[in-house]
Amino acid sequence: WAEPVSRPQAPAFQPVDPYAYRHRVGSLMSSPPVVVKSTKPTRQVIDLMVKRKISSVLVSDGGTPDRPIEEYGIVTERDLLRRISSDAERAFDMPVGSIATRPLISIRAAAFAYRAIGRMDRLKVRHLAVRDDEGVPVGVLSARDLLRLRAAAAIDLDDTIEHAKDAAELAATWSMLPGVVRSLIGEAIDPRVVAEIISDELCSLTRRAAVLAEQQMQIEGHGPPPCVYAVLVLGSGGRGESLMAPDQDNAIVFADGEPGGAEDSWFKNLGTKLADMLDASGVPYCKGGVMAANAAFRGSLGTWKGRVEDWVRRLRPEDLLNVDIVYDLRPVHGDTTLAAQFIEYAYDRGHAEPVFAKLLGEQMTTGNPFTVFGGFQLENGRLDIKKYGLFPIVVTARTLAIRHGIRERSTRARLEKLIAQDIGGERDMKAMLAGHSMLIGLLLAQQTHDIYAGIPVSNRIEINALTREQQSELKSLIKRLQSAPDLVRDLMFA
Fold this sequence. Notes:
Elements: H1 18-22, H2 25-28, E1 35-37, H3 42-52, E2 56-60, E3 73-76, H4 77-87, E4 106-108, H5 113-123, E5 127-131, E6 137-142, H6 167-174, H7 177-186, H8 191-219, E7 229-233, H9 235-239, E8 250-254, H10 262-281, E9 298-300, H11 301-311, E10 330-334, H12 336-352, H13 354-361, E11 382-384, H14 385-403, H15 411-420, H16 426-453, E12 460-462, H17 468-481, H18 484-490
C-alpha cells in the first residue's frame, strides 16, 4: 500500500452505513425504465407519470429502452413544475423533448449504492439513469429509492474520483480507502464485498487516470486517439477481488494498427502516461510489467487475437506467464465492445484447446507450506496466504472456467457456476467458496492492522494473532488445497 498523502491515524473508526456498501444500484432501481418519444405532448406524459406513480421518464426519439444511454434525456416532476410555472398553459402542449435534461447522467447497475449517493450529491440531482455493462438503460434510481439509508451514517467513499483534476486529487481520494475498509470490517460486511468495493475504486481510479492521460496527450500536441480503444483492468482488480496492496495490472486494446505502427506508438505514449498517473496516485507500477505501457499488454484487436492463437499453441506452462490474468479483464474506459470481442475470442479458443487450460492449471505449484511436524513454515511469524491459499483457489476456478466455457469474471461466480453445472464434487467446490471468503477476510484484517501500525502491507498474516479455531480452519483449508492441482487435472474432461 502506497501512502500518497499521509497514513491514517489510529482512532479512525468512522461509522459507516453498511447498507450503502452492501447493496448495488441494480437491486434498488425502478425497472424497466419508462421511456417516451420526444414528440409526445407534455400533458400526456404527466398523465402517464400520475398513472404509473413515477417521478421521472426517459425521453428519446424512438421511445424504446434499447438504445445507447447517450441517446436519452430525462424529465422529472420538478422539471415539469418549473416549466408549468414559467409557461403556464402553453407547457401542456409542448413536446416533452423540449423539456428534457441532457446529457443524461447515469450509473452502472453493478455500482454500489454509495457511489450513486456520491454522484447525486456532487451533481445536485435526484435521479440517475441506470445502465448495463453494454451502456443500455435498464432502470432509474431516485433519491426516494435511497431513503432507507441511515441519514447520520458517513459515506466516506463517494464520487470524487470521477471528477478529480489531477494525480494529487486522485491520491487524496485513494488515501481514504483504508479508513473505509477498516470501518466495513468493523461492521462485519462480507469480506468478498469489501474486496469488490476496493476493486470498484481501483477501476474508477484507472478510468479517471485514463481520461486525464488522454487529455495530457492532446495538450502536448499528440492529437486525439487514432482509433477507438478500451482500457482494461486485469487480475484481481478485474475479478473484483483486490486487497489493500494492489499494483497496476492494465492493458489496452484498440481497433486498428500494427505493432510498432503509428497507432501503437500513440497508445504506448498513453499507456506510459496512465502508468505514471496511477503511480503518482498511490497505485504503484506493476513489478511484473503488466501495464499497457509495455508492448505485450497493448495492441489492436487483431494483434490480441494473434496472441491468443500463440498462447493456445504453447507446450510449457512457463511460456504462459501473466496470460491467465487476461481472462479476468474488466473494461473501465473507452469502447467496451472491443473488450467484449476480445474476451469472447479468448474464451472460445481457450475452451477449444484442452492443452491450454491444462498448462494454466500446471502453474499452480506453490510448494509445501508445512514443516515435518505439521506446523506452518513461517517467515518472521507470518504465512503467505495469497501464495498457499488464495492463489490455488483462484487458479482452479479460472482454469476450469476456461476449460468448460464458463464466462464469469469473479472466483465466486466461477465456483458457483461449476457447482451448478455439477463439475467437481459439490463438497470440494463449496469448501473452496468458504475458504476464499475466509482467506480474504483474514488478509484484509491483517493488512488494515498493518497500515495503521505503520507496517508495510504484504500478503502475509501473523499466525499467532489468530484464534486457535482460526488457525485450525486455516491449516485444514491449506492442507486441502495441496490437492488442487490434482483436482484440476481430474476435471479437465468432466
